[in-house]
């Protein structure tokens, strides 16, 4: 490299140590909420660690198609505020519920768009596997992986239910109110459908974390 050449590095990066698999529900989840049949697959995080340029991804190490879908969603959260200026224009103090809903919808759309753009072959491989399971009589309610992924958008109702409850200083009372709001919104049925869509194959840790690293590199260069 001569002195006139410049070396550029992406602004953001993902360290292997900032990828976490989640195989159990968090201790912070109340027993009432767990009694709704809360799936391991309905948890995850995609963010930039505050004060750094480091990505962090937490993904469910659960059933293959559900877990892959959640991974796409969490990857959709990375840098989303930079590309969707509507998010930052929402006053979080006054419109928290709307702020969360806009972010969640954006992440679902952005996550699918990114995998189609950068690694369509991975999506194709997942679809081929999906159709093989359908031939075995599983996944009866869904025609394709993307159809299942769109179904996962129902998870936004979890946020709607919880955000509809006024905040109290009594955590036990707060949990009861949130539990009832989730039940009233039919989240128990959503969780039941999640359970029925499982095929019995866990997401492979090596495969998914390699995919996450490759996707993070592409996102860092956007």
What does this protein look like?
This protein is mainly alpha-helical and 222 residues long. It has one domain. It is built from 11 helices and 3 strands. It has a 3-stranded mixed sheet with strand order 1-3-2, with helices on one face. Strand 2 and strand 3 form a beta hairpin. The chain starts with 18 loop residues before the first strand and ends with a helix. The N terminus is likely disordered.
Identify the strand order in the major beta sheet. Answer: 1-3-2
- Helical segment tally? 11
Helix content: 40-55%
Q: What is the averaged pLDDT score?
A: 94
How many angstroms separate the termini?
A: 25 Å
Shape: globular
Can you tell me the number of structural domains?
A: 1
Q: Which residues form runs of ≥5 with pLDDT under 50?
A: 1-8
Write the layout of secondary structure elements.
Elements: E1 19-22, H1 31-34, E2 45-48, E3 55-60, H2 64-77, H3 80-83, H4 85-88, H5 96-118, H6 120-135, H7 145-151, H8 156-163, H9 171-184, H10 187-196, H11 205-220
Parallel strand pairs: 1-3
Antiparallel strand pairs: 2-3
Question: What's this, in brief?
Answer:
The protein is about 55% helix and about 5% strand. By secondary structure, the protein is mainly alpha-helical. It has a three-stranded mixed beta sheet, covered by helices on one side.
Features:
three-stranded mixed β-sheet; 222 residues; mainly alpha; globular
């Amino acid at each position: 490299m001569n002195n006139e050449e410049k070396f550029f590095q992406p602004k953001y990066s993902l360290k292997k140590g900032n990828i976490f698999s989640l195989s159990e529900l968090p201790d912070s989840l109340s027993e009432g909420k767990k009694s709704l049949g809360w799936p391991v697959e309905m948890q995850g995080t995609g963010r930039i660690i505050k004060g750094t340029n480091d990505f962090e991804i937490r993904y469910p190490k659960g059933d293959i198609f559900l877990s892959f879908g959640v991974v796409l969603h969490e990857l959709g959260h990375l840098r989303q505020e930079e590309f969707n200026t509507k998010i930052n224009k929402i006053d979080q103090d006054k419109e928290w519920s709307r702020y969360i809903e806009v972010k969640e919808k954006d992440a679902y759309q952005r996550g699918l768009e990114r995998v189609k753009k950068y690694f369509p072959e991975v999506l194709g491989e997942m679809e081929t596997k999906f159709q093989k399971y359908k031939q075995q009589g599983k996944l009866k309610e869904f025609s394709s992986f993307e159809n299942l992924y769109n179904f996962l958008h129902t998870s936004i109702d979890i946020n709607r239910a919880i955000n509809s409850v006024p905040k109290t200083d009594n955590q036990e009372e707060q949990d009861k109110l949130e539990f009832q709001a989730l039940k009233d919104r039919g989240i128990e049925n959503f969780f039941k459908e999640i359970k029925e869509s499982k095929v019995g194959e866990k997401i492979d840790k090596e495969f998914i974390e390699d995919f996450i690293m490759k996707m993070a590199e592409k996102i860092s260069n956007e």
